[in-house]
Sequence to fold (533 residues):
Amino acid sequence: MGELTRREILKAFLGMAALQTISCDRKATLPEGKLVDLTLLEQGHRIRDGLQIEPTKRQPVSVVIVGCGVAGLVAGWTLRQAGFEDFLLLELDSTVGGTARSGRNSFISYPWGAHYVPVPRKENADLIEFLQQIGVVEGKDETGEPIVAEQYLCRDPEERVFYKGHWYEGLYLSVAASQEDLAEWNRFHQEIDYWVEWRDARGRRAFDIPLENSSDDPEVTKLDRISMREYLAHKGFKSARLLWYIEYGCRDDYGLKLDTTSAWAGLFYFASRMKRAGEDAQQLMAWPAGNGYLVDRLYSKVSDKVWLNSAAVTIIPTEAYVDIDVLRDGREAIGLRAQRAIFAAPQFLRKYVLRTPVEQRFLEAFEYGSWMVANLTLRDRPYSLGFPLAWDNVLYESPSLGYVVATHQALMDYGPTVFTYYYPVIEDNPRQARQKMLSIGWQEWVEIVLADLKRAHRNIAQLTERIDVMRWGHAMILPRPGFIWSKERQLAKQPIGRVHFAASDLSGVALFEEAFYQGRRAAREVLVALGIV
Fold:
């Protein structure tokens, strides 16, 4: 796309309708900033392209965990909780957390990806235990549900949507909605209520968190064979406002549209976050750093065991041990010999590093979405017309997801702030989406972001001092129809010899809770295999 004009790039990423309201006069001077993904991309592509190293000796260690995203950090924390200390965590990047990582400027932290977690229900005991340890959960109510400290609950105003020049409260566009629109809105909630109350013969919910606790009854699993759009059409939903709202949820959590989201995943987005029918969804927990706040607490529990800038180039399982070849700091070749290994990186990397005769063609079912995330440092709040600045701010007529405000949870309601802007690059072919995202550089992305936000904030460019950009080529697993309840996903969770697997993509949805569950599960498998529990 390097030969396209600025107008053509804006049209390709924001659409023709957006151009009608966007001035395409190039800003004389762009703000400062950079691409923050270059080192990570370079290291990952070296491994993809067949990097080989030859360590001269091997260092013994009982357990090696590859990857310090949420799943890997949780696996390490679980081992340490059990009193087990002979383990190492390897992280390709200079920063832990994966897509839950965060950044910081001179006055506030901000997310580079995941930025909230719904309050868990009491059944998710492992996650609640962790949240209690770090002071997020203060206790339990009379029904046993966790009580979250008030400062960690997303404060009001939580959400607003921009439409035709004005901001409105909430994400459903109720202004000037017809009676038919409102009737469908109510009927959709009734549909979700049905699934919230649904139970199978064993008393399991249709949609639960972690996902492994959900029912595998055919009445529920058959929903995975059709798209969310097909499901809604079958139920007679036609309201453009409702369909936009539901598709926003699919884009937000999955990077997919109604046509490409599994109906099971689409309903999971709504029903799994509710305790009982007729109630609001679980409140959201949020931090200035997004889920980087939780990553930092996990990291603090295992930081002495972490090797940063350490790429696991080759993993060779044998009957007696697992050999791992590691490249540290881009130059030092180190060999590790472990009794067990936990591969806590995304599954698409397995084919590049895991040397095994076991057939792994099932991994072809794992597809990943591409996301661009930009953090804008502003010297002051931009102009808005209508409902005031909220934590989550969505543009109805944009392919982006809008932005969250880092200073919102810090009670900093005036002066400098950081907007974290999210843009899922959605194409039918995930590889083409990745190529599209990577085909343009920092300057083009900055101009896309400013052009998009200018429709809602006419002085955004003048107030923006810096924009840093992260391009996530494999940001999150895509729960397309047929994937959630596929045999391929089940196979991917199974250990291969002495190598165990843990990452949120094994659940089929990229949630903090799922990464937590997978890390916990894999660590417990290892503890059992070692005879410790």
User: Anything to note?
Assistant: The chain has 17 helices and 20 strands. Residues 179-197 form the longest helix (19 residues).
